[in-house]
Specification:
The protein is an all-alpha fold and 151 residues long. The protein has helices at 2-13, 31-43, 46-150. It contains three helices and no strands.
């Protein structure tokens, strides 16, 4: 019963994603050079300007996609790590509870046996003394019976 409860509890808490990834829509790392490139583009003929703008946009898009993929990967790794840390802590707590319950289940009969062992030992000793008295009385009776039958 305990194992089923632990599995249900761990399954209910599994994979709670605690941090959401943030999404980047613009590459801010090219701030200074972008202004210089745009100024240079104004001096070029339109067909070169378009090609350079398209290449710049493709590089920017690639940089944003890579950055967002890295952000998503980092967020997922952190979430998985947090989930495993939580599951490990939960499992260890439940294992400690199971160990304590098992120790209690073993200790209770042992305590009962130890408490009653002294009583049983004293009762055995008392009965042993009574048995000795009965044996001695029986021997006296046998001896007395033999003495009377010979007389």
């Amino acid at each position: 019963m305990f194992a089923g409860h632990a599995q249900a509890s761990l399954a209910a808490n599994a994979m709670k994603h605690s941090c959401e990834p943030y999404w980047v829509t613009q590459d801010w790392t090219r701030g200074v050079t972008a202004g210089a490139e745009k100024a240079l583009d104004r001096l070029l003929p339109e067909r070169f300007r378009r090609r350079r703008t398209r290449e710049r946009m493709e590089r920017g898009i690639d940089a944003i996609v890579v950055r967002n993929a890295k952000n998503l990967r980092w967020s997922m790794l952190r979430g998985i790590d947090t989930t495993f840390q939580h599951a490990t802590t939960e499992f260890e707590a439940r294992l400690d509870e199971a160990i304590a319950a098992t120790e209690g289940a073993v200790q209770a009969p042992l305590d009962h046996r130890m408490r009653h062992a002294a009583t049983v030992e004293s009762e055995i000793a008392r009965l042993g003394r009574r048995c000795d008295l009965v044996t001695a009385a029986q021997e006296r009776l046998t001896h007395e019976t033999q003495r009377l039958s010979w007389s």
